Structures are given as C-alpha cells and as structure tokens.
Amino acid sequence: MFHVHALQELRRRLLISGRVDERVGKPLDRRERTVVDTLVAEGRNVTVLARARTGDSTPDIAVDGRAAEIKSSTRGNARAFAFRVGEVWDRQGTGLVFVNADESAIDHADLVGAMQALVAHGDAAYIRVIGRRADIELGRWP
C-alpha cells in the first residue's frame, strides 16, 4: 500500500484531484464504476488496486490513498448483505466500504439500518451508501 500513499501524496502536492487510475487493477464492473464515478466527480482520487499474488482477498480501490471496498446490494436480504459487508475488515483489511444501492431490493431504511449497526458494533469504520434514493455516510472517514 505504500506506493498508493506515495502516489496520493504526489497528487496532493501537484494539486491533482478527481482522477481515476486503472493501470494495475482488475477492470471495474458497471456497479463499481457507478461508485468510482461518484467519487471522482467529488474531486477524489481513486486507484484501482491489483489482486494479491497469493490469492488473498484485497480491497477493490484506494480513495485518496486509503484502501476501500465496493459492495453492491442487488438482492432483498438485509441480513445476508450486512454479513458480506461485515466481513470486509477481516478479509480485505479495511473498514472503509462503499455500497452501491442503485439496484438494491432491500428497503432503503432497512439497508441503512443494517449498515448503521455494522458501524455501531465496530465491524466497519465508515460506510457510504450511494444510490438513486440517497447518498448517506455512516461512521467517520479517516
């Protein structure tokens, strides 16, 4: 992750913002692209991260030099989705999660409630739910 921090520091010094770097990571799917486009439009720098050679699970992106995961809610079970999001810290080593809720079949209030519970219990440090109905930040961005 050091190279991501160094790259972000260089971008900061050169006043470069609102860029996406996809040179090394896996191609973004359309749901991930929605989240990345939102972040870039806000002036954040996003770097798509490469997968670990060991086969271990790695975060999808780095946002302003901080590793983060993107999860998409497409089904209707809030508990099952919350379980997937709650595993991010253990599996990918980051407590920063962006949720694409554009196609979620979960009631919006139930989805936000489940994500709030994860932050409250310490299973995530920051979750941002991005969707057509709302854009909600839970927890603290470091």
Automatic annotation (TrEMBL):
The lineage of its organism: Bacteria, Bacillati, Actinomycetota, Actinomycetes, Mycobacteriales. It comes from Tsukamurella pseudospumae. Gene3D superfamilies: 3.40.1350.120. This is tRNA nuclease CdiA C-terminal domain-containing protein.
